[in-house]
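Task 17 of the worksheet. Students: predict the tertiary structure of the chain below and write it out as structure tokens. Keep your answer in the requested format; marks are given for formatting as well as content.
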Amino acid sequence: RAAEPPRVSPATDAAAAGLVEIRTVSPQIQLDIRYAGANNFTGAPVPGYQAPACYLLAPVAQALAKVEADLRSAGYGLRVYDCYRPVRAVQAFMAWVHDPREQSRKSLQYPDLDKPQLLADGYIAERSGHSRGATVDLGLLDCRTGACVVMDMGTDFDFFGVRAHTETPGLTPAQRGNRQQLLQAMARRGFANYPQEWWHYTLQPEPDPGTAYDVPVQ
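Model answer:
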């Protein structure tokens, strides 16, 4: 029997949901919240994202702050692409995937797949762990020279295809090493990777796997 879908919390703002903004516990963490702008696979700002902010349940935010601190002590850091994702945003992704006309970012982000395959292969789903406030999408920064630069992970965030699989063959040694560095840094603080996406991590065990949220990111 399929797992019951999570209930959607009646909370109407982040505080009521128990969601905290990551910069309140990790001020140095770098944010590039793609769904708050047009630089994402839909080609437009996504419903539910009113600001480029990163909210997570408090235990998740605290664990991620520890990852950032660990990395900073060695001259590295994190760049975060997405955190908590409102249910309405997931519904918007489903509407997008069922709209065959909207293909503006195909060549950049899903060149080898047609939209129906994005569903079939698990890149886009009817429900997202992000809506439960325990999942984060991120990459690595090299801050050893003082100015933090994005490290080469082999693909951009939200590239849909085999090359984004964490253990894909064909990466350069540097790309593979960068993915392993991220994997180990996250695992040390309790985060597990989704193997189809090198950037996707969920704190284990999840603080509240039975509850999703639909408060706006603002």
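Marker's comment: Residues 10 and 213 are 8 Å apart (CA to CA). The chain has a mean pLDDT of 96.
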